[in-house]
Amino acid sequence: MESLHPAVVHLPIGLIVAALLIETLALFLNRPQWRRISLWNLSLGAIGAAAAVLTGRQAMAAAKHSLEIHRVMELHEKLGYGILALLLILAGWRLAARDRLSPWARWTAWGLLAAACGVIAFSAHLGGRMVYEFGVGGSYGRSGGIEVVQ
User: Fold this and answer.
1) Model confidence at 141, in pLDDT bands (50, 70, 90)?
2) Residue 30 belongs to what domain range?
3) End-to-end Cα separation, the chain, in angstroms
């Protein structure tokens, strides 16, 4: 394996999706104690997202890729930075408020978390394309005729 990125990225994705699912249940079933579980998942997921971004930068620097792959990789990278920023802001906001949010703020936080999950899904799709369609970082997908971009 050329990079730790594939090994690091999946745990934060799972934590963030779990945070959304638990927060949704907490809201609809009126289980305030579950919000703490959601916040733990969100906070740990944000820390893991930082590790995913760092390992992603290393993977990008090490991977040989064509101009077509580079375009997909750049979008994947930009989305990663955006996701990280959103998760850090959201976790920081909830932690600073000691998770005592008004109903309006709680639904706003839920909407931001749902949006983050949507962007994560699209970014994961791009990561999958790079691996399985273009063969970046492994022996999957197309392998011949890769023009190296510096």
Assistant:
1) low
2) 5-133
3) 21
Q: Find where tokens 């969100």 sit.
A: 42
142 falls within a domain: no
Contact 39, 91 (CB under 8 A): yes
Model confidence pLDDT, tens digit, residues 90-107: 999 999 999 999 999 999
23: its two tokens:
């927060």
Q: Do residues 132 and 140 lie in contact, with contact meaning Cβ atoms separated by under 8 Å?
A: yes
Residue found by looking up tokens 């990225």 in the block? 9
In a domain, 29, yes or no: yes
Give Cα 74 to chain centroid, integer Å.
Answer: 15
Place of tokens 């909407």: 111
Extract the tokens encoding 105.
């703020």
Q: What is the pTM of this model?
A: 0.88
Residue with tokens 């930009």: 78
The answer to the question of residue 61 being in a domain is yes
